[in-house]
Each structure stands twice: as C-alpha cells, then as structure tokens.
# Entry
Amino acid sequence: MHIFPDLKKLERKYSKELTVVGVHSAKFPHEGVTENIRKAAQRYELEHPIVNDNKMAIWERYQVNSWPTLILIDPDGKFIGRVSGEGHFDVLEAYIAHTIKVFDEKKKVDRAKVVGKPEKIKPEILHFPAKITAQSATQRLFIADTNGHRILVATPDGQITDVIGSGKLGLKDGSFAEAQFHMPHGIAERGDILYVADCENHVIRKIDLKAKKVETVAGTGKQVWTRQGGPAKTSPLNSPWDVLLSPDGNTLYIAMAGDHRIWSMDIAADTVQILAGNGREAIIDGPFANSSYAQASGLALHNDILYVADSEGSAIRALDLKKKVVETVIGYPNIKASLFTFGDVDGKIGTALLQHALAVLYHEGKLYVADTYNHKIKLIDPVAKTSTTFLGDGKPGLVDGKAPQFYEPGGLALLGDKLYIADTNNHRIRVADLKTKEVKTLELKMPK
# Structure
C-alpha cells in the first residue's frame, strides 16, 4: 500500500501513455478472496484494473520473490525491467519517460487506449473508518472517517457534534470547515486537543476542539524512506498509522507503519525521533535499537508497557519503556518465517495465531485485539498466556446480537463497559457490551 501514492502520480503524469495493471498475489488467505480485494481497491481509491493472482501463477512466471515488485512492459509486450520494494519513483519515472520517447519515434504509443474504470461507491456517513478513540471525562467519541478524509466527534449514542475537515482530499490547515486530510487513521486525545495520524499525508495534525482549528505539527507532507528525526515540522514521516499520548501529555507515540518503526514526539521540544526499530521489516525482539517491526498499526499503553499491534507479523509486541527492550506477546519473533506465521487459532501463546491484527486495547489486565483479517475481536491474557476469541465467528458480515459478525475491524475504544469497534469494511461503528457480549450497530446522526 505504501507504493500507491507513487503509482497514482505516475498514472496522472502519463495518463494517456501508461497503463497500470495490479497483479495481486496474496500473502494472507484473506487477501486472496476477490471480494476482499475489491474492498481494498475501494479503500485505497485505486483506479486501475487488478488481477487476482491467488494461485501465484503470474508471480511465478515473472519470477517475483518479494512484495511489492513493479515490472515494466513496453508497447511491444516485452519485459524491460523491474524494481522491488518502495521508494523508486524517480527510477520508474525515468524509465517510463525514456520508453515513451523511444516508442513515440516508432509511432507505437496508443494514447486512445483506456483500461478499467473506478468503481462508484454508494455514499454513507462513514467511509472505511479505520480508528476510533474515546474520552471518558467528556463522554466523547472521535472517529477517523478515513476515506471520508475527516474526523467526526460523536456522543456515545451516535449524535455527531462536530465534523472536522471539509471531506476533500488534501493537506490544508485552518478551520474545521476548511481543513483537509488524506486518509486519517489513529487519534490521540487529551482534553480539547487531538493528535491525528494523517496517514497518506505523512504528517501529524493537531486539532484544537475549542478554537475549532487544525494545524500540522509534524512531517512535511512528503513520504521518505530514510530519516532520523529532528525538528518536528521539518522531519519527513512515512505513513503514520496510529498515535497515543503518554499520561502526562508530554510524549506522543507514533506507530510509523511505512518505515516499520515506533517513533515518539516530544510535545514541548517540538521534535520527533525514532524510539524503537532498525527499519527492517521483521519480528525481532531485544533492545529497542536492534528490534524490528512489520507495519506497526495500533498502540496501547499500560504503566510503562507500550503495546503494539504489528500487523504484517500478525503479532502483538510489548515495549518496556523503562528497560528499552521489546518482547513479543503473541507471534513468532526471531525466526525467518515470522512474517508468514499467521492464522486463526485460539489457545496457549506459542500455538495461538492472529491474522493481520490492526488494533490493541488494554483493559483490566487483558488485551483486546482487532484480529482484522479473521474478522474477530480476540482477548489476550498476558499473565495466563492465552489468546481466545471474544467476538465474531471468523466470517465477514454485518450481524448484531450475541453471535455477531464483522468485516475487517480495525479500531477499538472503550467507554465504561462498552467496547466501540471501527468495523472498517462495513462502514460502521459497532458497540459491544463487555459483560453480555451483545453487539449493536451505532446509529450515527449528522448535526442538523
């Protein structure tokens, strides 16, 4: 997903010359289902056609061995090059420009050809909500309406009291009505101040709920792959996915999915820095500097332990902020196959499995986990070292009651004994009673 911005730039620049065809060779079984691919294409607003290569036939024919791999084919249908990994826009742009020049001279560039049309989506109040945060003192919910490019403030019964952002995709500060976001995700709260991981803008935004203003406080708006931190506003970031404030409000923890690290922001000093991670996509425990993560996507904090939902490793990690070491709560660290050890298995940690978990929440000694690709909420007991299904039957769906179904839940929040769930692919917020396990769909009501 981190190469989509580069692909979109190339598609726009060479709209009449370049045809992009996505070939999706699934890592997770969930990703091999055509309907799930369709939902992902909608979520990331992709406009090119996609082939479901679920048996990896195209992958093998082109001898691909890593995600992502980009292959260039000339107008004669011949292979002319490939790149693997992220951050290759300049190389790709140069090759494409050169190829167009060469084949224009041969009069072989067909500028009339159009492949694929983006699918229209029926508008709803929410559009792929990724994250949700709750504030107990004021009984407010803060919802990342991710593909609506805005933040919604709501009461526990669903009355929306504020709409933050114009709904237009962009990076613009100002009043609630003027501000623009690009796929906002995690939200951290403290009083009347919110911090938002504005994921596809690669920045952190600050929202003043009293002044009704939005301000960019970290990141430049440019996605980069090599960085070390520094002054917050001049330090480029890479796909911040979740944010969490320390209890004293002085430190903002950032799950930086794009560079597989955990960052922190010193609010008073106005600086950002790498907290943990060497940038390698893997599940490796040990000292912060030597540890590895794989698309860190969710954060929770209890005392001095920062819990991380490490999605590509289908793992939950525990970072000891005092000792500066990380241990894996559930997952398979320090082995070559750690990124490919996943599933839907309850039981003792050591045999239990998750599949692409995107959120974690600590409550009364337990960890509630959005086990996203299993369409479940799991309950992990770090002391008993067990992982069990709390909600969901593993099938995608929109069913309330005591036998609920979800469709890629991605965010969790708690108010009293109610668990609020951002049910991403259902475009809904679901509410679960922790005592009865009964689930209801929150009826959101826009302000009049």
About this structure: The first helix runs from residue 4 to 13. The first strand starts at residue 22 and ends at 24. The CA atoms of residues 137 and 244 lie 17 Å apart.
